[in-house]
Predict the structure.
Amino acid sequence: MLAAERGAAANTLAAYRRDLEGAEHLIGDLATADRAGLARLGQCWADLAPSTVARKASALRQFYGFLLDEKLRADDPSPALPRPAPRRRLPKILSHAEVEALFAQVELEAESARPETLRLLALLELLYGSGLRATELVALPLAAVPRDAPLLTVTGKGSQQRMVPVSGRARQALSRWLAVRPDGGRFLFPSRGKHLTRIRLFQLIKDLAGRAGIDPGKVSPHVLRHAFATHLLEGGADLRVLQTLLGHADIATTQIYTHVASDRLREVVQTRHPLARRPKGS
């Protein structure tokens, strides 16, 4: 159902499977579990973060909703599941100086023109310059690379496609990578007959951070996506535009990036509000 009706991606399906199998390991057959059994899950999950408990409980609620819709159960025991109120954490981001340090390091290494250094430069340009998710980036087909238009066709969550801009810098980095890219394969970043894995991308970015003098624990592909979004907002980007660029279905997800510096917020009010342009005493 998740795959056919909702178009859920493979990673989403795997996450639901892990949550359901984990719950079944704790209380037995989920299809026949009663409210008492589900209530025990709350005790088993007591040491988990509220956000993790909320995710696991959501997976089970959707499972029992499916059973009801398909007439496989006549009752719904899911109200016995815990309902934590998770506090959404602000995303980790990098400062402008840290991003500049990453690019200074990768551009220095790319001067050697070795394929691995040119590939890393192209990866970094697309992570920070276009805000791609790690999965979207590594799975980019070669056909997605623009020939003339400065836009990239990306397939995101739920197999939803969107167009994202590609900067002149990124296009130049892609051109350099394509000149040394191994022949064959349909992916932009091929590896062993398929494409570069998310885990390998994660490792490459952390290793680069270490060489740039930045704590590797602060840097990941998703942190670069957060930096892309936050720095755009700081520069005055519209929230709706950012929602489109990031591929968020709900703007509430995008609104978490509004944690910009207080001086930036004051500056916007002082320079953009109509009263700011009225002479004093008028």
Observations:
- Residues 50-69 form the longest helix (20 residues).
- The longest strand covers residues 151-155.
- The radius of gyration is 23 Å.
- Residues 10-80 form one domain.
